[in-house]
Each structure stands twice: as C-alpha cells, then as structure tokens.
Amino acid sequence: xADRDLPAEIAEASRTLAxxxxxxxxxxxxxxxxxxxKQASDPDLWNDPAHAQQVTSRLSAVQADLRRLEDLRRRTDxxxxxxxxxxxxxxxxxEQVRGEVAAELDALRSSIxxxxxxxxxxxxxxxRDAVVTLRAGAGGVDAADFTDMLLRMYMxxxxxxxxxxxxxxxxxxxxxxxxxxxxxxxxxxxYGTLSVEQGTHRLVRISPFDNQGRRQTSFAxxxxxxxxxxxxxxxxPDDELRIDVYRSSGPGGQGVNTTDSAVRITHVPTGIVVTCxxxxxxxxxxARAMEVLQAKLLERERQAAQARMDALRADGGGSWGNQMRxxxxxxxxxxxxxxxxxxxxxxxxxxxxxxxxxxxxxIRWRRAAAVG
Length: 372
Fold this sequence. Notes:
Blueprint: H1 6-24, H2 26-40, H3 49-89, H4 91-118, E1 130-136, H5 140-161, E2 165-172, E3 178-185, H6 190-194, E4 199-206, E5 215-226, E6 241-246, E7 262-267, E8 272-276, H7 282-313, E9 323-328, E10 334-337, E11 343-344, H8 347-351, H9 356-371
Parallel strand pairs: 4-9
Antiparallel strand pairs: 1-3, 1-5, 2-3, 4-5, 6-7, 7-8, 9-10, 10-11
Helix pairs in contact: 1-3, 1-4, 2-3, 3-4
C-alpha cells in the first residue's frame, strides 16, 4: 500500500460522489419519493391499474436510487475512519486494515463510476422502459441466426441485472433464427441505457449453414424506443388503422394457437406495421400492438423535431444510429464498437449478456458528441 496515497484517493472519490449527488439533487429525490409514497397509499389508486403500475414502479426506482446514493456516501465516509484505526493499530494489523481500505475504495470507485453514467441520462424519455425491436438484415439464414443471438444477448443482460422482459412478438425464419422480434425491457432508465444500441450490428464468422465452410458477413438492425405513457397523448384515429388478425405460429410454422388471436396493425398514413402474437387473447395482443405503434409514432415525432434542430444548427454529422458494432468470430475473436472504439476479445461473453462496458462507453460517447 506504500505506493498509494489512500487519503487523496478517498478525497477524490468523495468529491466525485458529491458532484453526482448535486446533479441528481438528493433533496428533490426525497421530495419525489414522499410524493409517490403518498400517491401509492391512496386507496383509490388501483382504480386505474395502468397509472397505479406507473406510480409503484417509479416509487421503487426512486427509492432504489436513494438507497444506492446513501449507501455509497456511508461507505465513502467510513474509509477515513478505517484509516485512522489502521494508524492507531500499527504493525501488521495496520497493513491489513489498509489493504481492506484499498479494496473497498476500488469497489467504491467502480460503483461511483457506474452511477456517474446515470447522471448522463437526462433525456426526456431516458427514465422509461424500452421497446427493443430486432430485424434480420442482409445475410440470409445467417442474419436470422444473428438476430436470434442478439435477442438472447439482451435477454441475458436483463437477466443478469434482474430486469423483467416481456416478449411481444417473435417472427421465426424458415430455416433457423428470427426474422424479427419485439421485447419490452422494464428497468430504471432502460430506454436511456439501451438507446445507444440502436443501429446496424454486423457479424463475421464461418457460417454454420454453409456446407463449404465459407466466411459469411451478416447484419441485423436494432431499434430502441421509449415505452409510451398515458401523458404522451398520441391520438390515433380509428380510420387511420387497418387491423388484421391471424393464427399465431411458432418455429417451423408449428401452430401454437388454435384461434385467430395474433394481431397486425397497419398505420395507414405512415405505413408503419406492428404485430403481436405472444399474448393469449386477441384483445391483449391488440393492446400490446397499440403500445408499440404509439412508441413508434412518438419516436417519429421526436426524430422530426431533432431533424429540425439539426437543420437549424447546420449539423452535417452522420447519425450515430447507423452501423455501430462488429462481432468478429473469424479469422480472429473481437467485438468492437465503431463509434467509441471500445473493443473486447471475448465475443462469447458479449453474446452471453456482458455488454455493460459497451453501454457505458456508448452513453459517454453520445453525451460528448451532443456537447461537442
């Protein structure tokens, strides 16, 4: 421990945490928690289940953030006390305690860095749940298989963090994999976090579907939208919708439902088409499909507003939502984000859901690009 200035490192960690506390505004968070607790205790709250779910989910998220901040502050403030005890103890015991302080400090700095990323998520919809849609691009059956791999990657990431995921729709390809899939990730700041995944993902590998063992490049598109809430007021007249119902199906065309419960909704003015087949009833599938349609229309409005702002700023830069990550399995092993240059040499871990470093670097890159 002789080569580390622990008091200076602790002071720096404390200052960083204080900056985060200032940005997140602890007093405002406590007031918000108190207001949400008052709403949650209202006996009439569950007369509107959708609103009640929003209130209880938001309360849980705010309380979790407060506990996290308070725990980090307590642990940070304990470190100088532990150093004093080490100085008083002397000898081998002092070295042991200083080692414990150093280990705790390293863990704290990692947790503080993770929380610092949260302060970068200040967009209008960043706090919301995320609608994630994946579509196979160029590459035939390999692209469909790659889309399936990406869906599993996001599902495993959510599972690692304990985030619930609802599968709204899966469209299976004929030979293997998925043509498309839509899921909703329920997590604090899910949209702000996962929105940096939007764009074209590229896979290079020896194709398991090519009997000549040739290398294949395939592509998949990832779209991330915020879940629409009642306050968004997306009004869609009935005469703008074409609604078709059909029988749900599973892999290989095997029937999974004996009734026409799957729903396809087409928004005629824009041509946007959404489907949902994973709920048990046609009514449930229609409700879920409408949620996704509203999210897409909300994003369309947001993009139009952003385009107008970009035109005013005369910003000639390309969109960050184009090709954004390469997964290379042959002739070498690498996953690289083409925007941030962040890369790792273990694609298996990435496909198993270890994408937090990519998410963090993407969030920091996006913020730097916005202020630059």
